[in-house]
Amino acid sequence: MRIAVASAADVSFADGLAALDTVRAAGATRGATIDVGAPSGLLTARSGAAGVPIGVAPATDLHPVLVVGRAGWEAKFAVAALEEQGWKVDERVFVAPGADVTQGAAVAIDTAHFSAIVALDTVLGTVGPQIARFVREGGGVVLLADAANAPAVRGIAPARAGARRAAAIRAFDGAEPVNAMPVYPLESARPDAVRLSTRGPLLTAAARREGAGRVLQAGYDETWRWRMQGGSDAVAAHRAWWSRMVGSVAGGGTFKVSDGMASAEGAPLARLVDALGPATTVEPSASVPRQLPAWLLPALLIFLLAEWGSRRMRGAR
Questions:
Q1: CA dist 204 to 89, 90, 199, Å?
Q2: Which helix (H) or strand (E) holds 58?
Q3: R_g (Cα) of the chain, nearest Å
Q4: Distance between CA atoms of residues 202 and 64, nearest Å
Q5: Alpha helical stretches, state H, 45-192
Q6: Regarding beta strands 186-187 and 160-161, do their DSSP bridges make them parallel or antiparallel, or are they unpaired?
Q7: What is the pLDDT of residues 186-228, one digit of tens each?
Q8: Residue among 112, 146, 111, 105 nearest 131 (CA)
Q9: Per-residue pLDDT tens over the stretch 25-44
Q10: Separation CA 166–CA 199 (nearest Å)
């Protein structure tokens, strides 16, 4: 799970059985990433007095993932990682103009057939013009490396991909293996983009909502080197990393909560603000009194007593 909060704060997680973990969301990104495994019942996050349910789409509800980009090592091992982690994967990889390698049936690019699209680079082929509509209808997309600069997805990307930067370290055995990958830093991030990770002053990953779907942009390049050059656990870690990336955008629809809470998705306050706009303070008009005049209630009582007395006198006659 990836989380972001408005200010540095502790965020606790729980499922239907017990508390799971507490992390501090701090630093420039004010975000954190944790692995939860298989929660039991409803998964919730809480920071102070604010709590939100977290939707986890059942695997049986997920459609295949579509991977698009140039044919090469990145496409080969991204597909392998996802398939080995249990995802169904279709491919549209491009060797040369008019020469494509495909895996899976030739079906429409919509949420009835795919849960997510992974764009490995700026070569999107015939899939490109359909990605924005796919996301707005509830699908998810992962934009890797410089894919965000492709004309077809610029309008939905969290940021622009900057010039490629080489990694300062080359070994994948550190605490953060992604720091050994080259990166296209995210620049000119949109105001609604949620910053997820940084490398020094460089923004390396961000996400945003687009319609009913999600867009995750991660500037990392040559992720296949992690699998090939890492240590003994590199293959498993590479699989899990790719699965988390896709899982964070797939199944972006609403989910039902069975313990009395209303059906929800994401952060309820954020959805309310998105629908109605930010809270505003409305001052009373100068022409409208702020309260009833002090003399009005006694006058009404006098009129009521006078009416009652008049009726009694008429009845006595």
A1: 25, 27, 7
A2: none
A3: 28
A4: 32
A5: 73-84, 128-136
A6: antiparallel
A7: 999 999 998 888 888 999 999 999 998 999 999 999 999 999 8
A8: 111
A9: 765 556 666 777 777 778 88
A10: 12
